[in-house]
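To: structure desk
From: M.T.
Subject: fold request, one chain
Message: Could you run this one when you get a chance? Sequence is below, nothing fancy, just the single chain.
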Amino acid sequence: MPCKPALLARYEGFGSVTRCGHGFVHVQVGLTTLTLTEAQYQRFVALLTDSAANFERERLAETDLGPEAYDRQASESGDAEYPDILPN
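Reply: Done. Structure tokens follow.
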């Protein structure tokens, strides 16, 4: 029986995340696909979230912007730094 994937997120021209009926989450970016169990996917998200926070903290320290840089408004059309990545 074919497995119909459920699309969880997609950024056109960048990648997607799908969950299949077999219990796996497929994270596709460019030509690379990670196939993870749901538990592994949750840990992967936590890993990326922590690394993004540390990356931002390091970047702010280098630019002396300070914590007020976190107060910027979210954009409906995507992130200004990454205009090719649009929200779903």
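Reply (cont.): The mean pLDDT is 81. Let me know if you need anything else for the meeting.
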